[in-house]
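Instructor's aside before we start: the two examples that follow are unrelated to each other. I chose them only because their records fit on one page, so don't look for a connection. First example below.
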Amino acid sequence: MKAICKTKIKPGGHNILTEMEILKKLVHKNVIRLYEILDDPAQDEIYLIMDYLEGGTLQEKLQEASINDLGCWPDTSLFEDAGKVGKYF
């Protein structure tokens, strides 16, 4: 389970909820499965029920990687645009 603080979602963040709904429908062997989105109006967090994968987050792994591992320098802006990919599924 992953918790996302609602107050940290930027204005216009309704797109994030739409992308989460799309990810719920996406089933692929190379993508962590999102099973459920729990959004309780009385709470300040949105809970995502997902598959568990050991070893940390993808962002942590990219930040730890060297240029030799990936062939390029890790770019954290990749994560800002990653959600946009969902509209193509």
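Example two begins here.
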Amino acid sequence: MYIPKYFEVTDRKIIEQFIRENSFATIISSGNEFPTATHIPIELEVNEKGETVLWGHISKANSQWKLFESNPNVLVIFLSRFIITFLLPGMPIPMRLPGII
């Protein structure tokens, strides 16, 4: 994705803080014919190897989990609360994505 230098954030602490504060994300995988996407809560954690990883849960009823075995590379998109508020301006805050805002 193209990001103009003006908007580019390279400070890892700022990126990690953003993920922690905006943990509802869209995870996109390469499907057989089309990309597959699921909206899920994702947490930023440190695994047993000391690596910073994204951690979430997809139901076995959702076939997207099978795609991770053949292609573990995914795109994860995090939306800020500002963007959600901007996209849904007419909705009262409690009505916008319960538990997120």
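Residues 12-21 form the longest helix (10 residues).
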